Structures are given as C-alpha cells and as structure tokens.
C-alpha cells in the first residue's frame, strides 16, 4: 500500500514532522495587519496505482483535483492519462490564481481548461466522451472573503469560528448516474441533465457550484476527494468526526480511517474497494 503523505502549504516542500508541521504562508494585509492561510493536507494513491489526485497551495489559494480513472480497456481518444490531465490543469490553475486580480473562479477555471485543451497539441480526439477529466475544488482568500468553487463529486465543508459546520458543498449530479453503464454515464458527461467535469469543454466551468464566506480568524475549510468523503457517504462517519480527526493530528489520520474502513470491503453498490484519498484543511488565522 502506498503510504499517505502529509504535505505543508508550500507546493515545493514536503513536511512530515507531525500535526503542527504545516507551513504558514503570508497572505493578505488588512488595515495594517497580515492574515495567514494555514494549509495542511495528505494524499494517498489507491494501492497499486498512480495517484490521480493533486493538491496545490499558494499564497492565497488552494487547488484540489481528482482525476477520473480510465480502465485500460476503455478507449479515450487521447494519448494522455488522468495523471497528465490533473498535473496540466493544476499548473494552469496555479498560474492564473497567482496572477494579480480577483477574476471570478468560473472564469479562471474556464481559461485553465482552454489551456489544457490547447496542450493536447492536436494529437487527441477532444470530442471523445471518455477524454481524461477531473473534479475541481478551488479556494481563494481575499481580505474580507474566501471564494470557493466545486465541480463534480469532490466536497467542501465550511466551518465557522466556533467550530460549527456552517455549510457542506457537494456537487451530487453524478448520483443520478448510478445504475448506468460506463458508456451511458459518458454520454451524459458535460450535458444538460447530466453532470459536469473539467475535461475539454471550458463551458463546464460555468456549471460549477460557487460561493463565498466571510474571512474571519479561525474560520476553516475542509476539502476532500470522494476517496475521503466515502467515510461519510458509506462508512457511517459524520462530517464533524472527519474534521475533528483532521484537526486533531497529522492529516494522514483521515486517510488511515478510510483504509481501515475499506479493509472490510468496497462501499455498498461499488466495485471499487480502494480509491485515491486526498484531504486538505485550511484555517484562516490573524
């Protein structure tokens, strides 16, 4: 089994010293004060597979991607795999989120998808319904607000200053696909009445769930792929329990909880016993 990795907020540093090892990155100056976005995350590939999840954190943003696995026997019309897709999309998003200004996150994502589309280089059938794709979670810190975007079945949990869960943001449009064949699901991808995911169509970004929350000290945001949210969806955990586990110690504890639950078998109705598992906890400090 590939061990989970706890990684600090700097995308070029790996930190494994324990629960308080997160790197704090200076973010936003407000009325002579500087506020900080503290980011801790862990990621673990499904045993025996490359990790198709990706997390990137910058001075005032977080990117979390979950590449959609393509079975070897399924044609995709593409020479690239989901790992290439999430790394290329992640780099395009990081470049745009690092630029000055506060463009709407839907525009940022649409522009990044267009850049990925161009990066295919004319070698791929970009109209193919199985072209590599990814879910997307974006966070961006501003002086008084935190913007967020969720596309497809990753999750975002907003936690208030008192520790109360104020909102759970999940794009559950894939739930309507249960019971369909893979080909039928592919036929509903990025279509009205179906579901939306980051792949080759920049217009999918307009279908993302977006919003903002007040940026106040000790507000937290927990983001995760469906490899972590299966704790809540299938294994009897509450979001409160998952977030408490993430906050209490190294982030790898959340991944260990998933792997322990998976050891008893796949989630009900799923043939996929293990999945890539990635979680990030962002806390806004003064």
List the helices and strands and how they pair.
Elements: E1 5-7, E2 24-30, E3 33-44, E4 53-57, E5 61-67, H1 82-97, H2 105-119, E6 134-141, E7 145-151, E8 155-159, E9 165-170, H3 182-187, E10 209-214, E11 220-224, H4 226-233, H5 239-248, H6 252-262, E12 277-285
Antiparallel strand pairs: 1-3, 2-3, 3-12, 4-5, 5-6, 6-7, 7-10, 8-9, 8-11, 11-12
Helix pairs in contact: 1-2, 4-6
Structure at a glance:
This protein has about 290 residues and is α+β, with helices and mostly antiparallel strands. The protein is about 25% helix and about 30% strand.
What does this protein structure show overall?
The protein has 286 residues and is an alpha+beta fold. Helices cover 23% and strands 28% of the residues. The chain has one domain: 4-Layer Sandwich (Phosphatase 2c, domain 1). The chain contains 6 helices and 12 strands. The strands form 2 sheets. Strands 1, 2, 3, 8, 9, 11 and 12 form a 7-stranded antiparallel sheet that branches. A 5-stranded antiparallel sheet has the order 4-5-6-7-10, with helices on one face. The protein is globular, with a radius of gyration of 18 Å. The relative contact order is 0.18. Residues 6-32 have low confidence and may be disordered.
Task: Describe the largest sheet.
Answer: 7 strands, antiparallel
Mean residue pLDDT: 86
Task: Write out the CATH superfamily name.
Answer: PPM-type phosphatase domain
What's the helix count? 6
Which geometry do the CA atoms define? globular
Separation of the first and last Cα atoms: 39 Å
Pick out the low-confidence regions.
Answer: 6-32
CATH fold node name: Phosphatase 2c, domain 1
CA gyration radius, whole angstroms: 18 Å
Number of domains: 1
| Beta-strand residue percentage | 25-35%
Structural class designation: alpha+beta
Q: Mind telling me which CATH architecture this is?
A: 4-Layer Sandwich
How would you classify the quaternary structure? single chain
